[in-house]
Design a protein that fits this description.
Shape: globular
CATH topology of the largest domain: Rossmann fold
Oligomer: single chain
Number of strands: 11
Bound molecules: S-adenosylmethionine
Order of helices and strands: HHEHEHHHHHEEHEEHHHHHEEEHEE
Strand content: 15-25%
Length: 373
């Protein structure tokens, strides 16, 4: 068992909103069960980097991919290794911003992109633009990653967006320059104090890496047959649009929204708007797990956490589909459990949390020969 401070670990894990995360305790449980110290763990659908947070505290090596740059930003935050000078610089940054933001704002050129005025009031645009330009003056990437994480975490709160998963613009009368600046400063101080406490306990994280990369191409990131264990949670079919959820965060941070949208598999865009058949999703999954198979050692294990969905009015049973899709890889099922989705994660849309949907955990083992590599 890990002797880590679980409350602190959970706090770090949830520092930035991300839909359909698995709890860090779940990642720890599976990694402890299926790996030894220094083993290599891979997560092709990294999301908010929960797997790498767990590998980094358990002294395993780890890497993961995601097509969403906000996922990579959050993952990189969880792997940040900053020294005392960085902490002093960040403290100075927030003190300076608190004392001088009104003056800085008067010299700030407002940031702009299509439809920004619909989603943000002019006070929010001004303060966010000011923060963005102050971040660009910081000395190194670590400090900038930290500040971008804080900025990203407040974007939806200070926008006109109704809620994190409610994509409609409403008027929020309380938004003012001081409200936005104070929201940023408060979040900054909270995250910095958590980080400092966490960093003291954890130690170095250089054996863990998050890549902005389509999982279909992840076999270019490591040699074949080197991964001991894969722990992952693919998108639940037709349930979310991760690119949409993080769209304004991506615009503000200068990331490529279109390519994120194009590469994301399983989205509502594909199965509700474009009305694609479930076979498309199954082909995408097979392609990604074929790549995983090449990276995996003989007898390596793969734990997949996935919820049921609904595609074109028909229930998509994740367990049955995964077992069928993965049959060509000849992986053996070595463990299985499930929970009912109506009593798990609160971050799911109400419509998704219906009684007959389950979240399945399937653990497979690769054959003891290299035939499928
Ligand atoms: C269920 S979430 C993973 C959540 C993660 N386990 C966590 O704890 O935060 C699924 C992730 O798959 C990512 N994704 C979708 N298509 C992808 C692709 N082609 N390659 C890599 N990642 C992809 C989405 O951006 C999303 O972050």
């Amino acid at each position: 068992m890990t002797c880590f401070d679980m409350d602190l670990l959970r706090k770090i894990d949830r520092i930035h909103p991300y839909p359909a995360k698995f709890p860090v305790g779940t990642a720890i449980k599976y990694i402890e069960k299926y790996t030894q110290e220094n083993d290599l763990v891979f997560d092709p659908f990294l999301g908010s980097g929960t797997t790498l947070l767990a590998t980094s505290v358990l002294h395993r090596r780890g890497f993961g991919t995601d097509v969403n740059p906000i996922a990579i930003l959050i993952s990189n935050f969880k792997l940040l290794s900053m020294n005392d000078d960085d902490i002093v610089a960040l403290n100075n940054f927030v003190v300076d911003f608190t004392e001088n933001y009104q003056d800085y704002i008067s010299h700030t050129i407002p940031y702009s992109y299509a439809s920004i005025d619909h989603w943000f009031c002019k006070e929010s645009i001004l303060v966010l633009s000011c923060i963005k330009s102050r971040i660009s003056l910081l000395a190194n990437d670590n400090q900038r990653t930290f500040c971008k994480l804080v900025l990203s975490s407040i974007i939806n709160t200070v926008s006109n967006q109704e809620g994190d998963t409610r994509y409609a613009a409403i008027e929020k009368k309380y938004l003012s320059t001081s409200f936005v600046a104070e929201t940023f400063v408060k979040k900054f101080r909270m995250i910095l104090s958590c980080y400092v406490e966490f960093n003291k306990l954890r130690g170095p994280t250089e054996k863990n890496e998050a890549y902005l990369c389509d999982a279909k191409e992840s076999d270019r990131l490591a040699p074949y047959g080197c991964v001991d264990f894969i722990l992952t949670s693919p998108p639940y079919p037709n349930t979310y649009d991760y690119y949409l959820y993080h769209k304004h965060r991506m615009f503000w941070l200068g990331y490529d929204v279109k390519s994120t949208m194009r590469l994301e598999i399983g989205s509502r865009r594909e199965y509700s708007s474009l009305k694609l058949p479930k076979e498309k999703f199954n082909r995408d999954l097979l392609q990604i797990f074929e790549v995983c198979n090449r990276l995996l050692k003989p007898r390596g294990r793969v734990a997949i956490i996935m919820g049921d969905g609904k595609i074109q009015g028909e229930k998509y049973d994740a367990k049955i589909n995964l077992i069928n899709i993965l049959a060509p890889l000849k992986w053996k099922v070595v463990d299985y459990s499930f929970s009912n989705l109506d009593d798990t994660s609160r971050s799911f849309q109400q419509s998704y949390r219906t009684k007959d949907k389950r979240e399945h955990v399937l653990v497979f083992e690769k054959e003891n020969n290299n035939e499928n590599i």
